[in-house]
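Open question from group meeting: does this chain pack into something compact, or does most of it stay loose? Before anyone orders reagents, we agreed to write out a predicted structure and look at it together. Recording both the input and the output here so the notebook holds the full record.
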Amino acid sequence: QVQLVGSGGGLVQPGGSLRLSCAGSRSIFNINAMGWYRQAPGKQRELVAIITTGGSTNYADSVKGRFTISRDNAKNTVYLQMNRLKPEDTAVYYCNQVPPDAWGQGTLVTVSS
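Structure tokens returned:
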């Protein structure tokens, strides 16, 4: 079973930036589309960014123009650059295949002044 571990979360002020990383325990990145998901308190988990094996990307409307997903297949790592953060971006962020497999450890992002 693939272990996916997210990191890079933290507390940031509105308008700030964070870069999340997600490392896999084996090489799923070369054969699967990967995505970043998030789950805010009291809400369902949602897919916010996806990147295909060919590098094509797509974003939820709520983050389009502010978030950028990228991948490094050689390092089995997916990144999420988050700029101009808003309080409504507060959530636990997870990476996973698209469609998702077993969930790994997420990373908490809190946007607050």
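Observations to bring back to the group:
The chain has a mean pLDDT of 92.
The chain has no helices and ten strands.
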